[in-house]
Amino acid sequence: MGAGHDHAAGTATGRHRRRLVLVLVLTLSVVGVQVVGGLMSGSLALLADAGHMLTDATGVAIALIATVIAARPATNARTFGLQRGEILAALANAVLLGVLAVWVITAAVRRWNDPPEVASGLMLVVAVAGATANLISLLILRSAREESLNVRGAYLEVLGDLIGSVAVIIAAVVITTTGYTRADIIASVGIGLFILPRAWSLLRDVLDVLLEATPKGMDLDRVREHIRGVPGVLDVHDLHAWTITSGVPVLSAHVVVDEECIDTGRTGQVLDQLAACLGEHFDTDHCTFQLEPAGHGSHEPHQHA
């Protein structure tokens, strides 16, 4: 017996598709400017920031493609449709971020003993343009970052780009005022080191979803209390909660009800109350409950908490 089976509901990333498209256009525009500026000025920091932003653009593009895939209807072969496509997109994004960070740090180390000349004036102008575009993108994504892993990933990447652009600006000012060209290399390493923990954070959240960990913010002990508080419910076991994709938590449970509830035909009412309770208090619309009489659990070989 179940409740809340609306698989066609839009995913969290899909609800913010327009924001992602706008950020993608801004990001690609800045990437082009930074690549040209980096090559002309000889700045590794600019190229590193351009590479980071290109990875951001790739991640956003993957996320947008995933929203289309995730919106496809469920079938008998894939009962949740392809909503996990968004999570796989976030996984690819996290891996790309990690690879980019390692490349930037390696390239910076190789340059240390023989730092090239850098056109700091051009470097500064391009970095300021990049910082401005990143700030605009942050404002676009800010209100949606808590709803979707992919939007959150894009937000964190743009935040990293903004910090990277600030680092490039500082390096350009140092080179202009002191002639210390290794400032460009130091900024590059800083960008790489900043990317690594962000990549790991996103990867960890993706793995939680793929390993079907309990959704963040959901306390199963509280869920049990609420279920047991529904009139007619005696106990609950085999309680599971996981996430299909960002914004789509799922819950299932075996709920023990009293004999009077079964004899008087109030099981439908209990189901409605359970679904309403979990939807209101835990924002979980897709719930599946097995209602059973006391003692039925002894016929089940493996019970979970």
Short note summarizing the structure:
The chain is α+β, with helices and mostly antiparallel strands and about 300 residues long.
Describe this structure in words.
The chain is α+β, with helices and mostly antiparallel strands and about 300 residues long. The protein has two domains: about 1-210, Cation efflux protein transmembrane domain (Alpha-lytic protease prodomain-like, Up-down Bundle), CATH 1.20.1510; about 220-300, Cation efflux protein, cytoplasmic domain (Alpha-Beta Plaits). It has nine helices and four strands; from the N terminus they run βαααααααββααβ. It has helices spanning about 15-40, 45-70, 85-110, 120-140, 150-180, 180-210, 220-230, 260-265, 265-280, and strands at about 1-5, 235-245, 250-255, 285-295. The chain has a four-stranded mixed sheet with strand order 1-4-3-2. β2 (about 235-245) and β3 form a beta hairpin. Residues about 1-10 have low confidence and may be disordered.
